[in-house]
Amino acid sequence: MQNFAGTDPRVAAAISDSRQLIATDLRSLIAQIETSIRLIEAAITLEDACDPPGSTDVFVLDDVTPRYATASAALGACRAGLGLALKSLSDSGKLTETATAAARQQRLIG
């Protein structure tokens, strides 16, 4: 008999329950990443709106857009990796379908 004393209950759960918990955590991380990407896109848009084209009175001392683009690309890579991890948990594709539905729902809410 295994002793699960002091073990996180999520780890001590049955394998199928553990997969569901891991999938839930991965979906949550994916949603957080998508939110961060949207925030970056909004920041870029806001900065672009503050600098009217052809304005001679505005001097750009530090263009942060490349940093935003780099951060967005890194987050996109993380999202892809998490999606792959989520897909690899699925034996029959049911988790992947659930993840896709959850992502759609998150986009509608967010």
- Tally the structural domains: 1
The radius of gyration over CA amounts to 20 Å
* Residue windows where pLDDT falls under 50 for at least 5 positions: none
Strand content: under 5%
Mean pLDDT: 75
Number of helical segments with 4 or more residues: 4
Largest sheet: none
Measured distance between first and last alpha carbons: 45 Å
Q: How does the overall form come out from the CA principal axes?
A: elongated
Could you give the count of β-strands? 0
Q: What string, H for helix and E for strand, traces the elements in order?
A: HHHH
Query: Could you say which structural class the secondary elements and strand pairing correspond to?
Result: mainly alpha
Quaternary state of this entry equals single chain
Would you kindly provide a written description of the structure presented here, covering whatever features stand out?
With about 110 residues, this protein is mostly helical. Helix content is about 75%, strand content about 0%. About 5% of the residues are buried. The protein has one domain (about 10-55, about 60-110). The termini are far apart. It contains four helices and no strands. The longest helix has about 35 residues, at about 15-50. The model has no long low-confidence stretch (mean pLDDT about 75). It has helices at about 10, 15-50, 65-90, 95-110.
